[in-house]
Amino acid sequence: MAYAELVLVPTPGMGHLVSMVEMAKLLVDRDPRLSITVLIMKLPIDSEVDSYTSSLATSMDATRIRFVHLPRVNSDPEISSGTFLAHFMESNKPHVKQAVADLAESAGSIRRLVGFVIDMFCTTMIELADEFGVPSYVFFTSSAAFLGLMLHLQSLQDEQHMDITKFKDSDTELDFPSFTNPLPAKVLPSVVLIKEAVQSFLEHAKRIRAVKGIIINTFDELEPHAVGSLASLGAPTVYPVGPILNLKGETKTKADGGGRGDDIMEWLNEQPPSSVVFLCFGSGGSFGEDQVKEIAYALERSGHRFLWSLRRPPPKGKFDLPRDYTDPAEVLPEGFLERTAGVGKVIGWAPQNAVLAHPAVGGFVSHCGWNSTLESIWFGVAVATWPLYAEQQFNAFELVAELGLAVEIKMDYRRDFRMESDFIVTADEIEGGIKKLMEDASSERWKKVKDVSEKSRKALMEGGSSHLALGHLVEDILNNTP
Ligand SMILES: O=c1ccn([C@@H]2O[C@H](COP(=O)(O)OP(=O)(O)O[C@H]3O[C@H](CO)[C@@H](O)[C@H](O)[C@H]3O)[C@@H](O)[C@H]2O)c(=O)[nH]1
After folding, report:
1. Is position 253 within any domain?
2. Any idea which GO molecular function terms this record carries (predicted)?
């Protein structure tokens, strides 16, 4: 029997790559006839992708999932510019093509190429799938609502000739088919408000319309309205197969010092149930010293126990990922660590899933990256929103206003691509949000969080909505004849 081979093309950032690899595992676990090659493009910064993929290589069956690392390319624009990704993909295209040709040649009668699965930001690779005569599927690492937003904005631009960038700094609200509430322009992602970036961003939406199917990391019961609206927005068949989570925590990176976070777990074990607020801002989130101090004052004044993942921003003007502090005291208010020693803990990179799973954790101050959002839902932990960049403002709005699952610290607060901002969220605002989050365990919102958490687990069980959607996807893939 020849394996039906899929080529996966992820965007090589951890927020995208990890869920795509987990999706690959789901696929091969679901059907023994599938095998997968994941092509890893090399970013010009140390994105921790290499250490992640090598940690995986030891735990995976290489006959079913393989990683091919592509050569580093020269990509002209600055990584922080709005056009970097488009150039990066273009420069990588010949390498992707070569890798697939090599694969086809070496596979012989063992593997039969049946399709490409392409990350939502790698859509220029669709034409390579066309060249190889196989269909493309898109893997969408964010919400169904965000997919709806991309499709809607693209049709506003291309069919109604609207200049989307006019919404920059606008107080207007948009009628948005994927939400039951009007959408404030202030939560639009910055990429659609920047003239040099919007075009290539909306080109993704155009190309996405033409693929055979879109695999979305969401589940029907979380976003029923948004999922239901996609067909009318011109989406092809969608497969909501989520939540796809990395529950085994294989993202352990260099930045976490290689530790498993045993001291963090021991500390949590000593805290009362639901008493700790956890603060964590994803793989790219960090703050300058003034903002760090405001957070510290807020935590101290709130009187709540806390676990705070505090990370050092990259040097000014340099695009890189945050790293752990050797000594966080250098940016904290004087005496903060001593005064809060009994009730709080400041850490670097967090074992986030293990933390969210811990009964001592009662609330999560989050940047609302989609993976963190799904993880908070899975573990039934309510969120206070503090979005920073990308589509996080939009996710925060969905969580607070559309789904009623979160409280707001900030919603329309933006940073640029370099994460730099002079805007400060005050200690009062942060304290208010934390108190609201931690002191309403009997509220309607809290019940909703628990309810949707249960639904997320049911969705993945046999007969659940995501389990069924994955079955339909596998069936469709296996029917592809080259
Ligand atoms: O200290 C940390 C910080 C993060 N994580 C994990 O890292 C992942 C972070 O993913 P996510 O919450 O999605 O945030 P980003 O890394 O910021 O993800 C990028 O990709 C997402 C998916 O497309 C988008 O929703 C975000 O806006 C974009 O910034 C999650 O699994 C976290 O559990 C940790 O384990 N420990």
Report:
1. no
2. UDP-glycosyltransferase activity
Looking at the structure of the chain, the number of domains it has is 2
Q: Is residue 223 part of a domain?
A: yes
Is 387 in the same domain as 428? Answer: yes
- Domain match, 232 and 293 both: no
In three-state form (DSSP H/G/I as H, E/B as E, the rest C), the secondary structure along the chain is: CCEEEEEEECCCCHHHHHHHHHHHHHHHHHCCCEEEEEEECCCCCCCCHHHHHHHHHCCCCCCCEEEEECCCCCCCCCCCCCCHHHHHHHHHHHHHHHHHHHHHHHHCCCEEEEEEEEECCCHHHHHHHHHCCCCEEEEECCCHHHHHHHHHHHHHHHCCCCCHHHHCCCCCEECCCCCCCCEEHHHCCHHHHCHHHHHHHHHHHHHHCCCCEEEECCCCCCCHHHHHHCHHHCCCEEEECCCCCCCCCCCCCHHHCCCCCHHHHHHHHCCCCCCEEEEECCCCCCCCHHHHHHHHHHHHHHCCEEEEECEECCCCCCCCCCEECCCHHHCCCCCHHHHCCCCEEEECCCCHHHHHHCCCEEEEEECCCHHHHHHHHHCCCCEEECCCCCCHHHHHHHHHHHCCCEEECCCCCCCCCCCCCCCCCCHHHHHHHHHHHHCCCCCHHHHHHHHHHHHHHHHHCCCCHHHHHHHHHHHHHHCCCC
Give the structural domain span for 63: 3-244+458-479
CA of 16 to the centre of ligand 1 (A): 8
Catalytic annotation present for 95 = no
77 lines ligand 1 (CB under 6 A): no
Q: Is 251 in the pocket of ligand 1 (CB under 6 A)?
A: yes
Q: What is the pTM of this model?
A: 0.95
463 and 415 fall within a common domain = no
Distance from residue 352's CA to the centre of ligand 1 (Å): 10
Same domain, 436 and 464: no
Rounded to the nearest angstrom, the distance between the alpha carbon of 451 and the centre of ligand 1 is: 23
Question: Would you say residue 250 lies in a domain?
Answer: no
Tens of pLDDT along the chain (482 residues) come to: 789 999 999 998 888 999 999 999 999 999 999 999 999 998 887 667 888 888 887 777 777 899 999 998 876 666 666 677 888 899 999 999 999 999 888 777 788 999 999 999 999 999 999 999 999 999 999 999 999 999 999 999 999 999 999 998 899 999 999 999 999 999 999 889 988 889 989 999 999 999 999 999 999 999 999 999 999 999 999 999 999 999 876 444 444 444 557 899 999 999 999 999 999 999 889 999 999 999 999 999 999 999 999 999 988 766 778 889 999 999 999 999 999 998 999 999 999 999 999 999 999 999 999 999 999 999 999 999 999 999 999 999 999 999 999 999 988 776 654 445 678 999 999 999 999 999 976 688 899 999 999 999 999 999 999 999 999 999 999 998 65
Of the residues 14, 254, 368, 371, which should be mutated to test ligand 1's pocket, given the most ligand atoms within 8 Å of the CB?
Answer: 371
Nearest residue CA, atom 19 of ligand 1? 15
Does a structural domain hold residue 450? no
- Please indicate, yes or no, whether residues 98 and 162 belong to a single structural domain of this protein: yes
Catalytic residue, chosen from 16, 152, 358, 367, is 16
CA of 283 to the centre of ligand 1 (A): 5
**What ipTM was estimated for this complex?**
0.99
161 part of the active site = no
Residue 326 and residue 192 share a domain: no
Whether residues 132 and 187 fall in one domain: yes
Question: Could you say which of 95, 119, 152, 304 is catalytic?
Answer: 119
